[in-house]
């Protein structure tokens, strides 16, 4: 798949709420995930660990109030999307999370993802 095709497929799966299926289908086995600079677990390596990271996040969420993902912007081997999600965590804290996500594609698979977001409330 081309970078554009990978980007379109990721957006389609995320819009259907199939984020884990997107990882299984589109990520390379040795993919790397990089969180925001001040995140405690900044780098995650390998598709299995990336899936576990997603599972841990989903387990901390009590209720989803809405989510969205923009159309992808593609430049060569890279693409980016803007994601937003409003959730209530298990501790009762409700947040509106917004982030820019940048992906690198090689040989039709996502080999790296990096997230840019603020971890402090405004």
Task: Give a verbal description of the structure.
The protein has helices at 3-15, 19-26, 47-59, and strands at 27-34, 43-45, 61-69, 73-75, 78-89, 94-106, 109-116. With 122 residues, it is an alpha+beta fold. It has a single domain (3-116), classed as Nuclear Transport Factor 2, Chain: A, CATH 3.10.450.50. Strands 1, 2, 3, 4, 5, 6 and 7 form a seven-stranded mixed sheet that branches. Helix 2 packs antiparallel against helix 3. It is globular. The mean pLDDT is 92.
According to DSSP, the number of beta strands is 7
Q: Rg, please?
A: 14 Å
What proportion of the residues form beta strands (DSSP E)? over 45%
Oligomer: single chain
Low-confidence stretches: none
Layout of SSEs?
Layout: H1 3-15, H2 19-26, E1 27-34, E2 43-45, H3 47-59, E3 61-69, E4 73-75, E5 78-89, E6 94-106, E7 109-116
Parallel strand pairs: 1-7
Antiparallel strand pairs: 1-2, 3-5, 4-5, 5-6, 6-7
Helix pairs in contact: 1-2, 2-3
